[in-house]
Amino acid sequence: MPPDNFLKNTTTFEKLGLFLWLLALILIFAKVVLEPGSHSVVDSYLLGGQRWVDRVALYSGPGGFIYTPLFALLFTPFLHISEAMTDLLWRLFIIFLYLYSLIALIRMISDAPAKTMGKWLGMMSIIAVPIAFSGFRNGQVNVILTAVMVLVVCQIAEKRWNSAAILLALVMSLKPTFIVFFLLTTTLFRPLWLRVPVLLLFFLALPMLFGGWQYGWQQYINFIEMAQSAMHHGVHNQNFASLFNVFQVFGVFISDHSQHLIKVILAGATWLLCWFAIRQFDTKTALLYLLTFASCYHLMFNPRSVNTDYIILGTVLALWFTCAIYLWNNKRLALAVGLISLGVLEAFDLSRTLVPGSTSWVNPLMGLLFSILVIWQLFQKRTFVKQTSAHQPLPDQPITRLEKRSQLE
Q1: What does the pLDDT average to over 81-109?
Q2: Which residues contact 163 (CB under 8 A, 6 or more apart)?
Q3: What molecular function terms (GO) are annotated for this protein (predicted)?
Q4: pTM to 2 decimals?
Q5: Where do the H-state alpha helices sit in 302-392?
């Protein structure tokens, strides 16, 4: 699309959102050139790849390399180029993947002609890019996780079950904290019931096929031990950005058993909310509620959540903010979402200023506030399609007699 058409009818505010992408690329390129290795987690990915090549233990506690053996295997090609080049290529990859996912999301939501893409992307970027920037800068895998969540939602909406299943299985085999979105989508959509488990077993078997059964299996055992240690560390450290750690900041500790019980109860409630959305709304609306609830639960109840992980929340905040303006023309909702977004963006400084010595308690509270707001919108029957659009049942969901009668009328 020619630039003049892409920017047609965009306001200065929307152009600013688009400019943020260029600014992010410039700053990250300068960072890699002037301060190679600074504010980067790519070195830990390379460490895992090198340990895989050397056939030594991949893990050394809750720090360092903390991903699955498959991640280490897939990162080995980067060992053949310089670390600085790996830093740059990896960051460019995750940035453009995230940008592509936002464009796919806009196309899914908006029935407007392609020439309005600049308006939607510019408005979403005002919130999404500033919150995502630290993830871009650090090269974090959660940027990929966020993009994949969005892309899977778009693919399910288009009934592209095979590609959705491949992405779900692949990312789950790389980063098990993906499990919230993984379980919601896999259990709630019947066409994924068989596809995803088969593909997941295939991806999990790759380290044993390429590294030998004994070495590959032992690394999975080591991974489970490391993950348990990392989760225990997260539960008992108040500097992680999970909801239970907010209580620790203010001197209240909730026992491990109670935390597990609350998580299970709220996981069931989250599943029921998504099921309700599927039964109540059109396909697109139901999927976007699922994306939102999965994002909120993931961040609030993962004991290893950190402030930079809230790119996941920033994405759905940008979605709701833009839809409040362009789809619903609801200034109050846009203001509420905008204020929560500002809280996420400034969470580190707010946490440290309000409670000296802390860094991460504001973000989970923003997640909780947003969750309550979205639940309210769910029961107010807020949809992501124009009211004139006919209600379409979800794939493989039978049309009820009442729906048939309404369609005939």
Answers
A1: 92
A2: 155
A3: hexosyltransferase activity
A4: 0.89
A5: 311-326, 331-345, 347-354, 362-379
Find out whether 11 and 123 touch, Cβ atoms under 8 Å.
Answer: no
- Encoding tokens for residue 31? 């960072």
Q: Is 263 exposed, middle or buried (0-12, 13-18, 19+ CB in 10 A)?
A: middle
Note the pLDDT tens digit of each residue in 291-327.
999 999 999 999 888 889 999 999 999 999 999 999 9
Which residue's entry shows tokens 């400034």? 346
- Sign of CA pseudo-dihedral 135, 100, 313, 69: negative
Using alpha carbons, select from 281, 316, 277 the residue that is nearest to residue 295: 316
Cα gap 180→174, rounded to integer Å: 14
Higher-confidence position of 16 and 146:
146
Q: How far is CA 282 from CA 187, 277, 354, 395, 403, in A?
A: 18, 8, 43, 10, 12
CB 122 within 8 A of CB 14: yes
pLDDT at 206: 96
CA angle 120/122/126 to nearest 5° reads 115
